[in-house]
Design goal:
This protein has two helices and nine strands; from the N terminus they run βββαββββββα. By secondary structure, it is mainly beta. The strands form two sheets. The chain has a five-stranded antiparallel β-sheet with strand order 4-5-3-8-7. It has a four-stranded mixed β-sheet with strand order 1-2-9-6, with no helix packed on it. 24% of the residues are buried.
Length: 128
């Protein structure tokens, strides 16, 4: 399920991102999408490709990987995210929910640290 007013559009140096064409209140589930789960061995192989930037750590030990279908793997990172994601390991799903009101035309972002306001540097910040 992806709300019909979400679109994918250019996001400057970030490539592409997910945007909204209408205002969205906080607490709105905007997407529920399946994931393709990768074994720890498959994840290591993917980390050597362009797909590295599109996978999530997965499983209770975070050793597996998951590629989100739908728009899940296209939400960009922000330390002041307006969305959060939830991983359902049993049903192989990810849910994206707004954590604050989002204005029409805004980019929808998640914090790659898994908590919307976590300021811990993410991997691509530490590589600069």
């Amino acid at each position: 399920m992806i709300l019909p007013y979400l679109i994918v559009a250019p996001s400057g140096k970030k490539g592409r991102g997910v945007y909204t064409t209408k205002n969205i209140p906080a607490g709105t589930v905007i997407e529920i999408s399946p994931v393709i789960v990768l074994s720890s061995t498959e994840r290591l192989a993917i980390e050597e490709t362009k797909l590295y930037n599109y996978i999530f750590e997965w499983g209770n030990s975070n050793k597996q990987g998951a590629l989100g279908l739908g728009y899940v793997s296209l939400y960009n990172h922000s330390y002041e995210a307006n969305c959060d994601y939830d991983m359902d390991f049993d049903n192989l799903l990810m849910t994206i929910t707004t954590v604050k009101p989002v204005k029409k035309g805004s980019e929808l972002c998640v914090n790659y640290n898994a908590t919307p306001d976590d300021k811990t540097p993410v991997w691509f910040e530490t590589m600069r």
